[in-house]
TrEMBL record:
<comment type="similarity">
    <text>Belongs to the glycosyltransferase 2 family.</text>
</comment>
<feature type="domain" description="Glycosyltransferase 2-like">
    <location>
        <begin position="13"/>
        <end position="178"/>
    </location>
</feature>
<protein>
    <submittedName>
        <fullName>Polyprenol monophosphomannose synthase</fullName>
    </submittedName>
</protein>
<dbReference type="InterPro" id="IPR039528">
    <property type="entry name" value="DPM1-like"/>
</dbReference>
<dbReference type="Pfam" id="PF00535">
    <property type="entry name" value="Glycos_transf_2"/>
</dbReference>
<keyword id="KW-0328">Glycosyltransferase</keyword>
<dbReference type="InterPro" id="IPR001173">
    <property type="entry name" value="Glyco_trans_2-like"/>
</dbReference>
<keyword id="KW-0808">Transferase</keyword>
<dbReference type="InterPro" id="IPR029044">
    <property type="entry name" value="Nucleotide-diphossugar_trans"/>
</dbReference>
Length: 271
């Protein structure tokens, strides 16, 4: 693990990697070019056998804006992000960004998303609000994503259109109200998990449109197990919410705080 340099930086872009040797340098280079010196990058590598971690180390030696964490275990996307959040909070960053290594998330959106985090607790780069889109996806991938997000909205009673997206900005103060120690999901349901926790905690959540581009190199980590985990956990959370709502009505004669009121959408600043 690289040590953090003395810095005035306020934003840390966390990029988990596993076998991303072809992608890691291009995405880090684009991220640095799209942002100013107040933004640093943390590559969290899960002991990639293709040498991704070595490439990340080489980049970190070239600039003090890049740091690397090497993990010896591979326990899913959620585990990698939790390690990145812990590192970023320990080193005093004010905003923490989730971004994929494969180029599907365009770092050119970062300045606007980081600006939105000045007045919101969680900023979601959204494919499924007006202005958002996907590129190079087969029809079944889009159907799966749209359907999964529709089910999530109905099961949890939320207004967020893209709760499964992985391009987002958290403020450090948001983590003061989100219990990261209780996060059980490790796969892509991790994204729904954190969004749901933010909404239940009453945090201000905003969606802004992005274009999502399917990876050019490497293999997608999506699998049937990931889909099954998501369906199981979202269903469980929805049932649990309704049971707590019923108990609150019977015992206290009041509803739980809304999980819809603090979520809204904004246009891209360039639109």
């Amino acid at each position: 693990m690289s040590s953090a340099r003395s810095t005035m930086s306020t934003t840390l872009v966390i990029i988990p990697t596993y076998d991303e040797a072809e992608n890691v340098r291009p995405i880090v280079t684009r991220t640095l070019a799209a942002t100013d010196d107040s933004v640093h990058v943390l590559v969290v590598d899960d002991n990639s056998p293709d040498g991704t971690g070595d490439i990340a180390d080489a980049i970190a030696r070239e600039t003090d804006r890049v740091h690397v964490v090497h993990r010896t275990v591979k326990d899913g996307l959620g585990g990698a992000y939790l390690a990145g959040f812990a590192w970023g909070l320990e080193h005093g960053y004010d905003k923490l960004v989730e971004m994929d290594a494969d180029g599907s998330h365009h770092p050119e959106y970062l300045p606007w998303m980081i600006e939105l985090a000045d007045t919101n607790d969680l900023v979601l780069g959204s494919r499924w609000i007006a202005g958002g889109e996907v590129e190079n996806w087969p029809w079944y991938r889009e159907l799966l994503s749209r359907g999964g997000n529709l089910y999530t909205r109905l099961a949890l009673g939320i207004a967020v259109r893209d709760a499964t997206g992985g391009f987002r900005v958290f403020t450090s103060r948001a983590f003061e109200r989100i219990d990261l120690h209780g996060v059980a999901s490790k796969g892509y349901c991790f994204q729904v998990d954190l969004c749901w926790r933010a909404l239940e905690a009453g945090l201000r959540v905003v969606e802004t449109p992005i274009t999502f581009t399917e990876r050019e190199f490497g293999v997608s980590k999506m699998s049937g197990n990931i889909v099954r985990e998501s369906l199981t956990l979202v269903t469980k959370w929805g049932i649990d919410r309704r049971l707590r709502e019923a108990r609150s009505l019977v015992k206290d004669h009041r509803r739980l705080p809304s999980v819809r009121a603090n979520a809204h959408a904004v246009a891209d600043h360039a639109a």
